[in-house]
Amino acid sequence: MTQMVDYADAVRRYDPVLGIEVHVELGTRTKMFCPAEASFGAEPNTQTTPVSLGLPGALPVVNGTAVEYAIRIGLALNCQIAESCRFARKNYFYPDVPKNFQTSQYDEPIAFEGWLDVELEDGTIHRVEIERAHMEEDAGKNTHVGGSTGRIHGAEYSLVDYNRAGIPLVEIVTKPITGVGDRAPEVARAYVQALRDIFRVLDVSEARMERGNVRADVNVSLRPTAESPLGTRTETKNVNSFRSVERVVRHEISRQAVALDAGETIVQETRHWHEDTGVTTSGRVKSDAEDYRYFPEPDLVPVEPSREWVEEIRATLPELPQARRRRLQTEWGYADAEMRDVVNAGAIELIEATVAAGSSPAAARKWWMGELARRAKQDEAELADLPITPAQIGELQGLVDAGRINDKIARQVLDGVLAGEGDPESVVVSRGLEIVSDDGALLAAIDEALAAQPDVVEKVRGGNQGPVGAIIGAVMKATRGQADAKRVRELVLERIGA
Ligand code: MN
């Protein structure tokens, strides 16, 4: 068991600095340098060409769509787009890299010098500076068989699937992220999450974390104070969930604090994250860039996106998530805290669709963030997974607005919809939930209640309207809550002659 320092204690005594490298697999139909299919889930080694297998003499050709996607990402991250850039060979020997080098970009990335404002759950904004976004290709996938951990250590043999080899990637590298203090884990998580959201609206990737479409390498270092030079960093590789990104940062801060307290030096190395035990373990001593013997790829011409093309792409960028949130907040008239709750609950799309279905923004928020959030929590489900649609909530609220049901009955209608009994309208009909506003039906119930409580009638006639509630209550009970309470009150007073 690794000895740990309490996290709060560690961040009091050390200043954490982050660096995050995010790889995103682009959703192009074909691979980065050859026409092999790039789709997910095919039989192993059925989506290859001589290029992606690295066969001698095979020549790569750049995928134009991948370049366009890379430019889109660069622009969305406020980067400059290179007028000319080159690919480079990153040389290393590993079974999932059949060419013995990865075609990447080194000193000439396609996009550089950008930034992204990241919003934390409490609304704090932290600007993350982006050093570069470059194009490269994915490696194949090794499967280690026979061990208990799925890692190579202890495995009996390994299998390689080259379907993924050559799928286009964009790697986004931050500058050192400083000034985050005890919020380092949150910033790291929010940054990766913000990138994922951007990839999705840009439509450059499905960006599904669970499929490894987005993977983060998380660099963490500590230094005594914010004025000290940067400490030695560790790089935890291939973290593929938001929660894990947060946990890795937290863990590394505590672990490194122990080492530094003991007077040890931090080794610059890659580390592996173990989801089950919540710890990182040492991988390999990190190669410096020189060890990769980068050199310009001689088989590919430089990529020179014209300024016209870049501006064309810029002009077609969709509204980005943060701008969209601000616009919707203004349109909906939500307070900052209300909007944050909506965002954190992942309810923006649901509310947007509910409003489109005719509900007021206030009513839409009330349903999704109130009753439905409560039920989702109770079922440990996501809001979006509840068996009810925004259109149905719009219809439900329409029934309330029309005075056909009240809020209390609406909850029963909700029960019916969630139980699969159909749309709100049909649940109202089949359960007989419509408000009784027909005076004839109400008067029958009122007369019965008056006859049962002559003492109350006496008091009200005497000028004391207080006890009238007892009569109204009896009528509501007799009509199973479906009476219009305001109308009942009017009729009761009329009847008593008060
Ligand atoms: Mn990379």
TrEMBL record:
Which InterPro entries would you find in this protein's record?
A: Asn/Gln-tRNA_amidoTrfase_suB/E, Asn/Gln-tRNA_Trfase_suB/E_cat, Asn/Gln_amidotransferase, Asn/Gln_tRNA_amidoTrase-B-like, GatB, GatB_Yqey_C_2, Gln-tRNA_amidoTrfase_suB_CS, Gln_synth/guanido_kin_cat_dom
Task: Read off the Pfam families from this record.
Answer: GatB_N, GatB_Yqey
* Superkingdom field: Bacteria
What NCBIfam families does the record tag this protein with? gatB (TIGR00133), PRK05477.1-2 (NF004012), PRK05477.1-3 (NF004013), PRK05477.1-4 (NF004014)
Q: So what EC number does this one have?
A: 6.3.5.-
Catalytic activity reported: L-aspartyl-tRNA(Asn) + L-glutamine + ATP + H2O = L-asparaginyl-tRNA(Asn) + L-glutamate + ADP + phosphate + 2 H(+); L-glutamyl-tRNA(Gln) + L-glutamine + ATP + H2O = L-glutaminyl-tRNA(Gln) + L-glutamate + ADP + phosphate + H(+)
- Coiled-coil regions, chain positions: none
UniProt lists the gene as gatB
**Family membership noted in the UniProt record:** Belongs to the GatB/GatE family. GatB subfamily.
Record's keyword annotation contains Nucleotide-binding? yes
According to its UniProt entry, the function of this protein is described as:
Allows the formation of correctly charged Asn-tRNA(Asn) or Gln-tRNA(Gln) through the transamidation of misacylated Asp-tRNA(Asn) or Glu-tRNA(Gln) in organisms which lack either or both of asparaginyl-tRNA or glutaminyl-tRNA synthetases. The reaction takes place in the presence of glutamine and ATP through an activated phospho-Asp-tRNA(Asn) or phospho-Glu-tRNA(Gln).
Key words of the record: ATP-binding, Ligase, Nucleotide-binding, Protein biosynthesis
Q: Where is the Asn/Gln amidotransferase domain?
A: 349-496
The protein in question is named: Aspartyl/glutamyl-tRNA(Asn/Gln) amidotransferase subunit B
Q: How does it assemble?
A: Heterotrimer of A, B and C subunits.
Query: Carries keyword Isomerase?
Result: no
